[in-house]
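Run log, item B.
One chain of 298 residues. Sequence copied directly from the ordering sheet:
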Amino acid sequence: MNDSRLAVIGDVGGHLDSLVAQLIVLGVDVEERLIPHDLLICQVGDLVHKGPESAAVVALVDELMAENPGRWIQLLGNHEAQYLPDCQQFWTPTVDEKTAETIRRWWDNGQVRIAAAFDVIGSVGDGIAVNRCPVGELIVTHAGVTPGCWKLLGEPDSVSELVAVLNAAQSPAVWRAGTLLGGFEDMSAGPLWAVATSELYRSWALLSDEAKGLQVPAFSQAHGHTAARDWRNHGWYQPLDAYRMNGSASARADERRRITRVQIADRVFFGTDPSSDATAVPVSEPLMLTIRSRELVT
């Protein structure tokens, strides 16, 4: 299979115009609902809430998936998860019933999942540092995979096994909420809820202590959900800033695209959450990478 462009689109949060603007930059014919054949889009979840157009966003994505089989990968965010059976409702106001039914249909049909994995061979476009990814395996989830979550999932030996276990969604570890719902920092928070700085990055930084004795598969990650950078004040959140200062992590930011690149030891983490609230934050284009094939695991 020919090399493909991978676009990782961050949290949309009910802002239709923001999503459409990114799709147009990617060459998507939004009117005809057509995605270019050399392009694979992976959206990290949180399509809904915050903004005023959750229903329209979900309807557009539903049509894009129907018209472009295999070229739109939809991941589950914590905001979509509250519409699944037995999941906790935490956000009001909720979406209309038709939109909620669409999300449940996606879940039942396997059109939305927890994780995706890709074989990255380079960056796309200008190749600035924030866009660069080490050649190899990249896992994309909504909030990121903590090493503690990996251990609770049974310590899968490979990326393919890890993604399969995540997508089976049978372990409570997948739904583990951490500080956002539990009220305390959890180094085993799951891929829908881990806070970037205090749970995801911190857990990997703590892993550098050899006394932990935890060996995990080496892979890069991309996630949304929360940002490592305070985009409004142009600074890094703690504890990441402390890690930067003591040399245990490096961090770069693309302010224009609201993308962060954090490196801890030999692992790279891309953050794609633009931190929109009731008002959309303009994002010029998503994270762009070149991959060797469509997906490592389907």
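Observations after the first pass:
- The chain has nine helices and 13 strands.
- The mean pLDDT is 92.
Flagged for discussion on Thursday.
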